[in-house]
Design a protein that fits this description.
Layout (H helix, E strand, L loop, with lengths): L1 H8 L5 H21 L8 H14 L5 H13 L1 H4 L1 H9 L1 H59 L4
InterPro entries: LrgA/CidA
Pfam families: LrgA
Main location: membrane
């Protein structure tokens, strides 16, 4: 029941406010992307996704404030990929000449991405677990010291 109360407390932002949030993130991402060295180009949408994740993770913005527009944009994603599909169909001669190379590169990059993601997640989980154990040991030590002082120990 508490979860329902939390959902009721956070109202969805108006669509224009959600658009303003996304536009602000995109603007900041564009500025950051233009400041990056040309030898290490990072696309503006990637920086925007990282910024949005950090803002949501640190609870600077609430999910309800961007959820409606995000859901709408995700529903359009198929439509947004149509131009690239048309471009691919228009350039089938490239697929005929270099199709096997492209498939191999896509397969290898997908496998590498999955392996790197798995090991990164594993490392982060292990680090969090180690950090939690360290905190628990510190708390237990403080409790033991406090108890021994209360009993008249050193």
């Amino acid at each position: 029941m508490k979860m329902n109360n939390d959902k009721q407390k956070t109202k969805a932002a108006p669509i224009l406010a959600q658009m303003a949030i996304y536009a602000s993130i995109l603007f900041v991402s564009n500025v950051i992307s233009s400041l990056m060295p040309s030898s290490f180009p990072v696309p503006t949408p990637v920086i925007g996704l990282i910024l949005l994740y950090m803002l949501l993770n640190f609870k600077i913005i609430k999910l309800a404030w961007v959820d409606s527009l995000g859901t709408f944009l995700i529903s359009l994603i198929g439509f947004l990929f149509v131009p690239s599909g048309i471009s691919l169909a228009a350039n089938l001669n490239i697929m005929a000449t270099e199709g096997i190379q492209l498939v191999i590169v896509i397969a290898l990059s997908t496998i590498i991405m999955l392996v790197v993601t798995a090991y990164t997640a594993r490392t982060i989980i292990a680090f969090k677990k180690h950090l939690q154990e360290t905190r628990n040991k510190t708390r237990n030590t403080k409790v033991q010291v406090t108890v021994s002082h209360a009993k008249g120990g050193n």
